[in-house]
């Protein structure tokens, strides 16, 4: 049997009742506008809200992860790009400094070697003219204005370190006595000329003569520098005129008449090479600058020929010009102020022993063989780092190398067992140069990128917090209203209401609320213009239970409104629990009338039995409840009774 018109109308119009019942709940949850879709703003299942909240949390975590990865990636890229740019700037700067260092230092060396060759040629030409005029010959020749000419050669290099220049004529064994007479006669003359030119006031020619040994000799170092005459066959190379004038620095001896061949093993080897090749040669040496300090340099042997030309192979070599020059002179004033951090490694093609220039060492007094010297160039100043390759291996890939000194000697012409070095210059950057090319830009850009992303993340978090707060308020409101829906409608009808509204929203429809926040039942109860239909089902087999309170009218007229509310709330609450237990559908309550139905919305064959059991339990519950309420609501409360009616 179908429900009556009243019952069907009640089921179909539950939306209006839900709106009325949910209004107080909504007002407690916020002040959201009623102008939107009723179903959009209110009827979303709680489970859906929780699922969407979980999705939002996952999306939020994903956005945060993307922001973090983007910040890390961009900051790292910015840092690497800036550092790469600084690295290129460093490489370009070093290449410029290295090219400048090699070019200028090589130019200085070439200029000096050309000047030394011209100096030797000038001596030979002057001597040839002198001998032709006076009918004399080598070795008996004193270079006029010696100090003036030697000083011009020395001024071709820069720096405060001394350069020693000396001329040693070749004296044969039979000429030694005549040389002794010649040197004793000429020494006072050129001593005085040099003292006057060099401006010495603390020495005289007489004092120098007292320290001068009058014969070709060696010094016995182990016996207090006692002079020993050179005897035996062969050539001698006694130093004659030297610049600067005076004793050997740090030693109480003069170089005059000291045999260069026997006093220095290195000079003897270089002389033999020069004599065989007719070319200048060089070797490493230590040059004294004070009694306890020496600087590294080279001893250069330049041949002097009888006459101005050095081209003829038949020209006789009559003397040597020996020059000891610190290599550091060639590395001063290479770079401008502020152009710091160049490491220069000077390498010889063959190792050589280091000797102190002018000190009478024998073979057993030479130091271990060396072939590398390292200097540090900072702007116009150069400093010795040591007698080894002391550059930082980290910069091996940056090396710029070039031949520094090549005397173009044919190795096949030199005596066996000797070596003429080709000097190569290796230029490296230093850590100081790299640091000077570095800036704080990498850090600044990295911090800037991180700050931008941090600000973006903060804005995102603030926005997300604001939206999340609104969403939580809406979800709280929806959850409360969803509980009301769940209390009013069975799950099947509730779900159908949601599905029906979802279809309407998908098709562009919206539920329209009146100004008072309720649905217009006239519009909802019939098909509207877009074809939607109200929710109404036919249940052919149901049993309806009516229950009303007997004596309620008289009882309520003598009570306060809140006492009436307590009675109805307590009774109807108890009936709701009984209906839930028996799966009976509560239709409505009208005043003191409670209407329920068995067999809907889920049909069942024993709906009549269920309805009867429900009515019976309600009758039993009525007595118990009224007795309990008698204390608070008055003694005649237990007189109330329940009248039930069952319609199938």
Helical content class: 40-55%
Taking the alpha carbons of the first and last residues, their distance comes to 7 Å
- Our Rg estimate from Cα atoms comes to 59 Å
Helix tally equals: 16
Please report the total strand number as a whole number: 16
Which structural class should the secondary elements be placed in? alpha+beta
Assign an overall shape. Answer: rod-shaped
Biggest sheet statistics: 5 strands, antiparallel
Q: Kindly estimate the percentage of residues that lie in beta strands according to DSSP.
A: 15-25%
Poorly predicted ranges (pLDDT <50, ≥5 residues)? 1-44, 357-367, 511-527
Task: Describe the strand arrangement of the main beta sheet, using strand numbers.
Answer: 4-1-7-6-5
What is the assembly state of the chains in this entry? single chain
Name the average pLDDT: 79
Task: Write structural notes for this entry.
The protein is α+β, with helices and mostly antiparallel strands and 648 residues long. 47% of the residues lie in helices and 19% in strands. Strand 14 (585-590) and strand 15 form a beta hairpin. Helix 6 packs antiparallel against helix 7 (205-211). The longest helix is centred in the N-terminal third of the chain and has 89 residues, at 46-134. The relative contact order is 0.12. Residues 1-44, 357-367 and 511-527 have low confidence and may be disordered.
């Amino acid at each position: 049997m179908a429900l009556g018109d009243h019952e069907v109308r009640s089921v179909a119009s539950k939306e209006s009742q839900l709106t009325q019942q949910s209004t107080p709940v909504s007002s407690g949850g916020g002040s959201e506008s009623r102008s939107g879709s009723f179903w959009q703003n209110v009827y979303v299942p709680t489970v859906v809200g929780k699922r969407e909240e979980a999705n939002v949390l996952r999306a939020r975590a994903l956005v945060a992860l993307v922001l973090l990865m983007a910040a890390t990636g961009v900051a790292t890229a910015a840092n690497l790009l800036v550092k790469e740019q600084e690295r290129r700037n460093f490489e370009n700067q070093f290449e410029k400094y290295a090219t400048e260092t090699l070019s200028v230092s090589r130019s200085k060396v070439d200029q000096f070697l050309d000047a030394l060759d011209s100096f030797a040629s000038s001596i030979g030409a002057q001597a040839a003219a002198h001998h032709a005029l006076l009918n004399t010959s080598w070795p008996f020749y004193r270079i006029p204005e010696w100090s003036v000419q030697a000083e011009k050669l020395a001024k071709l290099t820069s720096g405060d370190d001394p350069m020693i220049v000396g001329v040693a004529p070749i004296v044969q064994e039979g000429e030694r006595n005549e040389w002794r007479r010649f040197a004793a006669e000429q020494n006072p003359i050129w001593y005085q000329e040099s003292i006057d030119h060099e401006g010495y006031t603390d020495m005289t020619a007489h004092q120098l003569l007292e320290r001068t040994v009058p014969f070709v000799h060696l010094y016995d170092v182990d016996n207090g520098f006692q002079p020993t005459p050179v005897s035996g066959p062969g050539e001698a190379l006694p130093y004659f005129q030297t610049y600067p004038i005076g004793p050997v620095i740090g030693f109480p001896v003069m170089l005059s008449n000291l045999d260069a061949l026997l006093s220095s093993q290195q000079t003897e080897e270089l002389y033999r090479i020069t004599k065989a090749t007719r070319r200048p040669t060089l070797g490493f040496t230590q040059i004294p600058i004070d009694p306890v300090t020496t600087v590294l340099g080279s001893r250069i042997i330049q041949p002097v020929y009888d006459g101005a030309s050095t081209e003829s192979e038949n020209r006789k070599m009559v003397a040597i010009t020996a020059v000891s020059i610190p290599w550091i002179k060639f590395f001063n004033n290479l770079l401008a102020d502020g152009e710091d951090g160049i490491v220069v490694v000077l390498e010889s093609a063959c190792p050589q022993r280091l000797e102190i220039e002018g000190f009478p060492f024998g073979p057993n007094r030479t130091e271990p063989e060396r072939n590398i010297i390292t200097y540090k160039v900072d702007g116009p100043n150069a400093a010795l780092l040591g007698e080894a390759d002391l550059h930082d291996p980290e910069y091996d890939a940056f090396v710029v190398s070039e031949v520094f000194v090549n005397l173009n000697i044919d190795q096949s012409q030199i005596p066996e067992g000797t070596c003429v070095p080709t000097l190569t210059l290796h230029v490296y950057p230093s850590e100081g140069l790299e640091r000077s090319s570095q800036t704080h830009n990498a850090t600044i850009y990295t911090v800037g990128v991180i700050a931008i992303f941090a600000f973006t993340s903060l804005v995102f978090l603030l926005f997300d917090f604001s939206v999340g707060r609104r969403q939580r308020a809406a979800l709280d409101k929806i959850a409360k209203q969803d509980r009301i829906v769940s209390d009013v409608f069975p799950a099947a009808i509730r779900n159908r209401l949601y599905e029906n509204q979802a279809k309407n929203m998908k098709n562009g429809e919206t539920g329209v609320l009146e100004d008072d926040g309720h649905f217009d039942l006239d519009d909802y109860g019939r098909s509207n213009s877009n074809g939607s239909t109200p929710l109404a089902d036919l249940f052919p087999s149901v049993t309806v239970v009516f229950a009303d309170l007997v004596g309620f009218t008289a009882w309520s007229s003598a009570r306060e409104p809140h006492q009436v509310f307590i009675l109805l709330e307590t009774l109807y609450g108890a009936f709701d629990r009984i209906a839930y237990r028996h799966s009976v559908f509560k239709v409505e309550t009208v005043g003191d009338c409670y209407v329920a139905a068995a067999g809907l919305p889920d049909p069942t064959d024993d709906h009549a039995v269920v309805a009867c059991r429900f009515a019976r339990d309600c009758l039993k519950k009525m007595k118990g409840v009224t007795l309990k309420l008698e204390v608070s609501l008055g003694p005649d409360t237990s007189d109330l009774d329940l009248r039930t009616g069952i319609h199938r």
